[in-house]
Amino acid sequence: MAQSKHVLLVGATGIFGQRLAAILATFPDIQITLTSRNLDRAQSLAKALADRTRRALLPPDSVRAIAFDRSGPVEDRLRDLSPFLVIDATGPFQTATYDLGLAALHQGAHIIDLADAREYLLGYQDALNDRAEQVGRVALGGVSSTPALSSAVVSACTVGWRRIDDIEICIAPAGYSAVGEAVVASMLGQAGQLGPVWSGGRIVERHAWIGSRDFTIPGLGSRPSCPVDTVDPVLFGPRFQVQGDIGFFAGLDSSFERFGMSLLAHARKAGLVQNPTSLPGILTRIRAITRFAYGKTGGMVVRMIGIAGDGKPAKAEWSLLAQNDHGPNVPVLAAAAATRLLLEGKLDPGARVACGDIPLDAIMKEGEPFEISTKLLDAI
To answer: Distance between CA 23 and CA 2 in Å, rounded?
Structure first.
């Protein structure tokens, strides 16, 4: 039997952390330590996972829990824990720092970071790469729906193309699915703010959450969607040499939430309100009640047009459908796939944003236990 490798999951009791922990608990030959600032919550999750996966039959420390506050000094804690891999699933992502990643590398551990905030990811490689290369470890940021999954889709669907002209991406979450305060804070923080988009083959700036268009997702139907601020246009434009436009949209299920975001965005643009720092907690609590009025099906669509290898016009549409509230598993599939690749020694050392590093088939394989399906239409 192979020696178990220690995986430390920071933020395990959050919305996405719990979903990722449940997947990792099925991996053989790893020891998982679940962390939370609240020890009782971490211990409850560890017991539930051990019971569910029958890890209670394995050595006692196969799934364990500790109290861990990443805002304090962490290097000593990591030295004591000696992890093979640290996975950062904490939020809010828009205020994340590189401290945990640097501490993990200093202790000789790999780091996988689910944070997807644009500014954070644009500084990720510069902040961590020197140390990652010195110790021969991997540091991957943005290991989530964006840009890890979205870039994997574009890479897989445009193999052999001469040119990509336009890319459109829309994520339409189920209104029923629980949303953490970090996600709400991120949405509110970018409403009405200028952010970079790729238009006409170059970077321009546009206001997030202003304007709307309908996206049709197979199995889900049409969803009004607004432009949002992600790192994808900044990364995808140069990487895929996109000649035209790259758009990233979010389609909220609740018309009330869509109206509220649009109203806030226009007010921010006009300078009538500042960053509403007190709202995320309030709105998260309200949404915990109102979400029961909405559906449990969400989806994602990526559309690409360009020129195929034979010089003819090409287009491809990849879509994902997540039913029965399985959508919150989608943002953690890339992290699960990256963990498996690291365990198999298949990721090159160094720090970078996960943009094309994790193959689409590896990501979607982690989704097989869930009610998540994909389609590829009009592929050339």
So the answer is: 20
